[in-house]
Amino acid sequence: MTPSDLKDLVRTIPDFPKAGIQFRDITTLLGHGAGFAASIEWLAEKVDGSEAIAGMEARGFIFGAAVAARLGLPFLPIRKPGKLPCEVNGVDYELEYGIDRLEMDPGSVTNGQKVAIVDDLLATGGTALAATELLRQSGAHVEKAAFVIDLPDLRGSKKLAAQSVGVHCLMEFEGD
Fold first, then answer.
1. In the annotation, is 133 catalytic?
2. What angle do CA 87, 89, 94 make, to 5 degrees?
């Protein structure tokens, strides 16, 4: 399937979660077996050469774990606060209207390990930047990130590139 075919499998829901937002719903892509498999294959090609795959809760778990399995690599879950039963490394980051936090088990990364980030959507880049910082604080070498969807108007890919992370996006949707 081509990237255009895969883009056609993403449903757009207007005015969700609030008026003026065009929500890009990947559940229709996930529900199409061949489309989901093609998406995983595309993402895996972009992060090949990595030694582990990290994905952020929650949809990054879906794509990241599938890519890790496809490549035979470890999957590193980047979690929301309070979800891990061990000592964690954490990083706070700014949202549009507040602060959030990501955490991970620091023992899941070896010093200098090449880790790629995989997620469903890149918008402002806040979550991906926080994950990059967290992984790097834990000793990982983060150079690659792959996303199913990019919203280029929100400039997340440019922010990641400024942190020396190569960004690959399967498809783009203009606007918010």
1. no
2. 135
Look at residue 165 in the predicted model and tell me its pLDDT: 98
Residue 153 DSSP one-character state: G
Q: What is the span of the domain harbouring residue 113?
A: 3-172
What is residue 108's DSSP assignment? Answer: G
- pLDDT greater than 60 at residue 176: no
Q: What is the tens place of the pLDDT at every residue in 32-80?
A: 999 999 999 999 999 999 999 999 999 999 999 999 999 999 999 999 9
Q: Is the pTM of this model over 0.70?
A: yes
In the block, tokens 């969700």 appear at 16
CATH number for 59: 3.40.50.2020
Beta strands in 1-158 (DSSP E): 11-14, 22-25, 52-56, 75-78, 89-95, 98-104, 114-122, 141-150
The Cα 84–Cα 112 span in angstroms is 23
Number of domains in the chain: 1
Phi, psi (5° rounding) for residue 54?
-110, 140
Distance CA 11, CA 26 (A): 7
Nearest to 42 by CA among 89, 96, 5: 5
Of the residues 59, 70, 101, 136, only one is catalytic, namely 59
Is 70 designated active site? no
